[in-house]
Amino acid sequence: MDVSLLRELQEVISRQVMADGAAHRVLPCVTLMSTREPTPSIAEVAEPMFALVAQGAKRIGIADRIFDYRTGQYLIVSVDLPLKARVVEAAAEAPFLGLGFTLRPEEIATLLLETGTAQSSRTDPPGIAVSDLTDELIEPLIRLLRLLERPDDIPVLAPAIEREILWRLINGAQGAMVRQIGLADSRMARIGRAIKWIRDHYAEAIRIEELARIAYMSVTSFHRHFRGVTSMTPIQYQKQIRLQTARSRLMSGAENVAEIGFAVGYDSASQFSREYRRLFGQSPGTDGRNLRQSKEPGVGPRQ
């Protein structure tokens, strides 16, 4: 990797975003983030995306797996996954600099069809992976971000540059993952349909047979492929979605803990509190108060 290109990417990100620890959407498919200090862990459901670290380091947790990526590396997420993410390396003299790029299945599918590269993978790619940036990927990213300084050029030039970025990803180290996102009948896309059902019906009881039917798989095959993509069973995945949804509702403070537990699908308040504490390290009530305080003016986020 050309170090001068990486420095140029760092400079253009720094010019476009404040080092406030927030994610700023600068284009419909692009977010930028910068922070001068490590951040607390944030739970979120990540949609298919390409995320890079131009400076610093970030840690992603999914189930019992940890993915670290740092300066000059990127991460691909190929399906909706409940993750815990935090910046682990940042300083005032060298702020963390990150970029996120949404991977839209329809745009990948169009590119695959136009180029005749729409073949399926013979193996199951994972749902998340880390690789090293290449010069061929950095160059169009710099050009895309430079358009922010000439807004009138964005409608004309941005779509072509975004296609170039997708093409580099399709032909890069995680190309098999990216291609699967765009293939409607790939195993990953079929697992994605089951994942969408769980996200839309997270408070309902899961029937594995129904999920397997949605994915057009046998129950045995569905279990194997679901775990291969998400690192979780369907039940574990649903639990993560329930608890992350509960955390978002706790932040608003409009409902009490028991009401939220029942609303996201728990029949037992004690079970809800126990599983919430296991995932987030605090009881729902305590965590909710801390989350609300961290959003108040003049109050920083808690570690």
From TrEMBL:
PROSITE patterns: HTH_ARAC_FAMILY_1, HTH_ARAC_FAMILY_2. Residues 192-290 form the HTH araC/xylS-type domain. Residues 280-303 are annotated as: Disordered. Keywords: DNA-binding, Transcription, Transcription regulation. Pfam families: AraC_N, HTH_18. This is DNA-binding domain-containing protein, AraC-type. GO terms for molecular function: DNA-binding transcription factor activity; sequence-specific DNA binding.
